[in-house]
Amino acid sequence: MRRELVDVLVIGGGMAGSTAATVAARRGLSVALLRRGYGATALSSGVIDLPAMTGLPMTARQEAIRFFWQAAAAAGYPYLGEPDSEALLLSAAGMVKRTHLYPATTGAGLLGTWGEERIVFVGIRGLAEFNATFVARAAQQYAAELGLSCQADAAEIAFPGVRHRYNITGFELAQLLDDPEQVARFANAVASAIGSATRVALPPIMGVEQSAQAMTAVQSACGCPCFELVSGPPSLLGLRLQHTLQRVLPPQVRVLHGEAIGVVARDGCIQHVRAVDQDCEHVLAPRYVVLATGKFIGGGIGYAQRLHERLLDLPLWLEDQPLADSPLRELSHAAFAAMQPFMRVGLRVDAAWRPLRHDGHAAYENLYAAGAILQDQGQNECWGTLGAALIGGYMVGQNIGN
């Protein structure tokens, strides 16, 4: 079987892996991206919470955010926000989400921007996952707490062209709104229902691939700012973010849809990676390898009698110690909503983002890691998972070969 030479092999195609692949390719390196399918990024809320990440140069954090802003805008799905101040966005469940970076389609929903106006929350008949009346009441309460003198009302429309009245899903409607003719009919239906509204809130359904165009059409019909509400995972906004990351990949990045099944290492370096791509097997000979396989959803960490890193059996860490062979029940709390210790388990890396052995030295000279597979990047008050993955992926992409 022929060896395939490549400068960088990135394993994992979420926020960290896609970012690392894009940055490395823009530096002139040949890159292969190996991914099994959608992981945690596609299932996320689609908004990006930024971590403090103390110990990193502030310039690196700023560069990573600037890279993402520019890349997302170029891909047709721009993001807004301020890295150093939290934004308050209302969710489709009537709760406030605190975040830093958010899609432009949600921008007019920023709580601090509401003035003396009438905001109409538009529900869709048969879309059980969104109750416009409930969310409007929640919005009125939050506005009062913030000292905003706005009025929040609810309206309901039938989605044009959808004949069944029950069990409609947001994803079904979003697919329909990728059709410009359907968008025009929907925009007219919304405009007819809002009366004297000065701002319009919509459930997160504004297209899968053409959300910016759909939102522009609805705003034009309504004659006022319109916005989507954010939602918890799994979210259409997360799926759009994943698609955006795919569009950002430079054309010279070779994407393999499969998984790594074996590694050959010699003299402290990874020499070959065996990968299965659908029905084909590849032997890749990379100069550098980036492990961005995620945690549990992405499949980077598995459980068979113990938690383990699945590809190389690299040591997992919790706090400042390598993880012992502890049963999973010893790494969890009975309270469902409690912060679970097992979600903090992950790889530990050195200053160059190389995973560490038990003795604190780099496991392999040419292996890097970023994203949710790292320690404390699953559930921690100080770390925003997508934000940390963005910054880590950017840093790895910049540092490879330096």
* Name of the CATH architecture of the largest domain: 3-Layer(bba) Sandwich
Q: Percentage of helical residues?
A: 25-40%
The proportion of strand residues reads: 15-25%
Q: Please provide the count of β strands.
A: 18
Whole-number total of structural domains: 2
Instruction: Give the CATH topology of the largest domain.
Output: FAD/NAD(P)-binding domain
Q: Oligomerization state of this entry?
A: single chain
Average pLDDT level: 89
Strand arrangement across the biggest beta sheet = 1-2-11-12-13
Rg of Cα set: 23 Å
Terminus-to-terminus distance: 31 Å
Low-confidence stretches at least 5 residues in length (pLDDT < 50)?
Answer: 379-383
* CATH class type of the largest domain: Alpha Beta
- Listing every helix as H and every strand as E from the N terminus to the C terminus, the arrangement reads EHEHHEEEEEHEHHEHEHEEEEEEEEH
Structural class: alpha/beta
Shape: elongated
**Major sheet summary line:** 5 strands, mixed, barrel
The CATH superfamily label of the largest domain reads FAD/NAD(P)-binding domain
Query: Helix tally?
Result: 9
